Amino acid sequence: MRGYLRIGELSRRTGVSETTLRAWERRYALLRPERSEGGFRLYADDDVARVRSMQDHLERGVSASEAARLALDEPATSGVAPVEGLVNELSAAIEALDDVAAQTALDRTLGTLTVAGALRDVLLPVMRDVGRGWEDDQAAIAREHFATNLVRGRLLALARGWDLGGGPRALLACAPEEQHDLGLIAFGLALRSRGWRITYLGPMTPVTTLAEAARLTEPALIVLSSSLEQRLEGSDGELSGLASGFRLALGGPGSTEELASRVGAELLPPDPFDAAASV
User: DSSP string covering the chain, please?
Assistant: First the structure.
């Protein structure tokens, strides 16, 4: 499984200090990080499981070396069945418009998986299913609104402090009249895990406002997202001007290769994690 988790987040989720995690990795090969393009170690769900397993063995009085051996011998816990259970739990709560059950499902999901794993394997797939057929079904529309507000609030809570650090800055915004921003938030969280700092303008951002924010923050990357092609109709001149002074990327279903080429921008892959890896 690809790693998306920086060591600070691994430490926060497991309660083990970064110094101890590095020692366990060095002495016992407990962790198996991958390297990002920027050289950061990135950890995956299986690393979280091994750390928690080692903690359990240590609490039972097992020596550190033996605890590490036992944790390494155990099968990975981030397989399909647990993920399916989390998907089903959240989907059922949304189907019933049950806020308490939905919040509990979110707590369980984020407590079991990394943020990236929760997004990739549970939250985004559930939201895609919720969004199907909403145009013709009032009950589906209600569920889509309920689920969007629920998940969006939780993701923005996870995003708190994503402007901190010394990495390059990305300025993220939705196109004018564009209200759907879950994919853009997920992209921002994926970028953050790769060391970027995030400035987030959110839904329905006029291109002129985006340009002024770019002047003030001088980002290394600007990303503009849209779900429908018409959101950016008539904006070629403004986008070209923005692309002449900054690195501009377009994302979302409403962005096309033709438009990106026309205005001098990049076109991001549709998956937010693939998009984060591409920049």
Answer: ----B-HHHHHHHHT--HHHHHHHHHHH-----EE-TTS-EEB-HHHHHHHHHHHHHHHTT--HHHHHHHHHHSPPS-SHHHHHHHHHHHHHHHHTT-HHHHHHHHHHHHHHS-HHHHIIIIIHHHHHHHHTTGGG-HHHHHHHHHHHHHHHHHHHHHTTTTT-SSS-EEEEEEPTT----HHHHHHHHHHHHTT-EEEEEESS--HHHHHHHHHHH--SEEEEE-SSGGGGTT-HHHHHHHHHHS-EEEESTT--HHHHHHHT-EE--SSHHHHHHH-
Mean pLDDT of the region 196-211: 97
Domain 7-73 in this protein, CATH class: mainly alpha
| Answer CATH for 80-156 from 3.40.50.150, 1.10.1240.10, 3.40.190.10, 3.90.25.10 | 1.10.1240.10
Matching CATH number, 169-278, of 3.30.465.10, 3.30.360.10, 3.40.50.280, 3.40.50.12780 = 3.40.50.280
**Residue 140 carries which side chain, given as an amino acid letter?**
A
123-159 tens-digit pLDDT: 999 998 887 766 667 888 899 999 999 999 999 999 9
pTM flag (> 0.70): yes
Most confident of 57-66, 74-83, 149-158: 149-158
